[in-house]
Amino acid sequence: MNWEQRIDEALKDRQSQGLMRQRAAVSAGAGRWLESESGRWRNFAGNDYLGLARHPKVIAAWQAGAARYGTGSGGSGHVVGYSEAHRRLEQALAEWAGYPRALLFISGYAANQAVITALAGAKDALVADRLSHASLLEAANLAPGRLRRFLHNDIESLKRQLSRGCSGLQMVVTEGIFSMDGDSAPLAEIARIADETGALLLVDDAHGAGAVGDAGRGSCAMQHIRPDILVITFGKAFGVSGAAVLCSTRLGDYFLQFARHLIYSTAMPPAQAEAISAALAIVRSDEGNTLRALLQARIEHFRAGAAPLAWRLSPSVSAIQPLIVGDNHRTLALSDALRKKGVWTVPIRPPTVQSGSARLRITLSAAHTPADINMLLEALHACSR
């Protein structure tokens, strides 16, 4: 078999299973509406949970940052790329989240890869929830330590994995709100067990930070814990992109020396840091509280109306509301049928989720109106019939 044959075979296999991924170029993809050359749809596929991607203050901050600093950072933060805008944002994030240090990364994927690969040694064990994000599990697989998975949100399974021990150190890895199921981890219990066993605790709260908790501090604050390492991202509730790692002063110094994604990547543009700072100010404010209340109202509205549907609704109470269809081809057909009714949803299929659990990953935003939710429900009920 040559390279062309191998590639063709892989693509044909994906096609036959209804697993081919496609991209659609859009002119607007955040907030209420998704727009492209071929039409306009109500958008229930994005992660702009508070509607900040189009907030005038966030846009103005990016524009002013570009005017002051230019369009790029000019290099790695270890060379010339670390600006005053980055420093101010890191300090504000640390104060908001209650940590001594915050370090900025270009993406959540890079942050997770950097932290795990910098810390894990050959004799260590990485004990991760089996439904953790691909960036976490891939990093654990690439790191020299051994990956052990515990059953999703199962405390007894976590205890069993940790009790196996190892000749090195152990790290527990989980998410605050899981990206494909929308459910929350029992963080208080996980933190207690990690502390009892001397394991380091890493929580990726990409989908909780900004969207839940007092002042938007996220899932960990809601459950009154402070993990050793907290990863948050800015492409969801903050409406921008990028990520930050919150940690102790000692860990921060360590990552500055050994986190390769931080050392060898061009830093995010200072203008982006200014936009994130503006978004953080909104997240922390009374306006942020109002937006989170609106988001919660939209979630409750949707769940009440979706309860009678033929498909299984996840128990999620977050902005992520998966509708489990099961079969790949039926999931694709349902997504297509909804688009014909003016509703944009995205089908999620294996390997992103388990085989037999293909779904529509419906996401809600404070930017949605009650009329938007009603339209979504009407379209789903019509397709169900």
Describe the secondary structure blueprint for this structure:
Layout: H1 3-16, E1 33-36, E2 39-43, H2 56-69, H3 84-97, E3 101-105, H4 108-119, E4 125-129, H5 134-142, E5 146-150, H6 155-163, E6 170-175, H7 187-197, E7 200-204, H8 219-222, E8 229-233, E9 243-247, H9 249-258, H10 260-264, H11 270-284, H12 286-306, E10 312-313, E11 320-326, H13 328-340, E12 343-344, E13 347-348, E14 358-363, H14 370-384
Parallel strand pairs: 2-12, 4-5, 4-6, 6-7, 7-8
Antiparallel strand pairs: 1-2, 3-9, 8-9, 10-11, 11-14, 13-14
Explain how this protein is built.
α8 (219-222) links the parallel β7 (200-204) and β8. The mean pLDDT is 95. The chain has 385 residues and is of the alpha/beta class. The chain has helices spanning 3-16, 56-69, 84-97, 108-119, 134-142, 155-163, 187-197, 219-222, 249-258, 260-264, 270-284, 286-306, 328-340, 370-384, and strands at 33-36, 39-43, 101-105, 125-129, 146-150, 170-175, 200-204, 229-233, 243-247, 312-313, 320-326, 343-344, 347-348, 358-363. The chain contains 14 helices and 14 strands.
Short account of what is shown:
With 385 residues, the protein is an alpha/beta fold. The chain has 14 helices and 14 strands.
